[in-house]
Amino acid sequence: MELRHLRYFQAVAEEGSFTLAAARLHIAQPPLSRQIRQMEEELGVVLFERTTRALRLTEAGRFLLEQSRLLTARLDEVLEGTRRLGQTQRRWFGIGFVPSTLYGFVPELIRLLRSADPRVEVGLMEMNTLPQLEALKAGRIDLGIGRILLDDPAIERRVLMTEPLLAAVPLHHPLAGLGSVPVERLAREPFVLYPARPRPNYADHVLGLFRAAGHSLQVVQEANELQTAIGLVAAGLGVTVVPASVQRLQRQDVAHVRIEADAFVSPVIVSYRKDDASAFLLRALELAESLAKR
């Protein structure tokens, strides 16, 4: 299936007519109808309910329309950004980051980099550490900010800092009133694990810390997003473990408790291509190291 097939499908769905869609696309109706039939055969589903009086999307067709619009909209943004950079001769510098780092020095780093050089456009992508490595090697980003160390011969890594981990518990939980909690006590609680995928990720780091302390967890719920995990904690589903900087969220329905174990820390790591010696990357690394030490 090619991109033009999605464009054809979207036109037919939005116009509600093969005739009107063909006119909009500046093609004849019979080839358009054949293309849609071929899409349906390739997918193995019917996308349109065809009657003599109306053309309606099936449930599968509605799903494809919604999802394909997201894809083509994102593609249009990429193409427009490409044109803009080409016309202005600006360089694009991509940063991938895990969400939990946004509660520390990373927002200040991004702000400084966005104003550091008018010839460079800084782009941001939220992604976990493993996808960051693939994006670095593919050239989609130039700097990754994550929390787990993954070995790759093409990638250089620097640990900027280590951050204490805290237990996040419901506000009225018995642990909420304590100044600190032993690991073995925390391990007895139902646990909300995040992120669920892709693995390995921060969740494996947390599980590894508990295993090293001789404990396994009763995971009752997995979440892909930090905010979702904290919301589930607030709802009373269980507890979780978060970097200390997450306290800046200042949620009134969740308490943060110190964990009585020095090993319960999380590093903040920057990753970049080993062969990248660009001046802007070096500037970004200098700024990141300086901000992390504050």
UniProtKB/TrEMBL annotation:
One of its GO terms (cellular component) is protein-DNA complex. The keyword Glycosyltransferase does not apply. Residues 1-58 form the HTH lysR-type domain. Gene3D superfamilies: Periplasmic binding protein-like II (3.40.190.10), Winged helix-like DNA-binding domain superfamily/Winged helix DNA-binding domain (1.10.10.10). SUPFAM superfamilies: Periplasmic binding protein-like II, Winged helix' DNA-binding domain. InterPro entries: LysR_HTH_N (IPR000847), LysR_subst-bd (IPR005119), WH-like_DNA-bd_sf (IPR036388), WH_DNA-bd_sf (IPR036390). Coiled coil: none annotated. GO terms for molecular function: DNA binding; DNA-binding transcription factor activity. Keywords: DNA-binding, Transcription, Transcription regulation. Pfam families: HTH_1, LysR_substrate. PANTHER family: LYSR FAMILY TRANSCRIPTIONAL REGULATOR, TRANSCRIPTIONAL DUAL REGULATOR HCAR-RELATED. Belongs to the LysR transcriptional regulatory family. This is Transcriptional regulator. It comes from Achromobacter arsenitoxydans SY8.
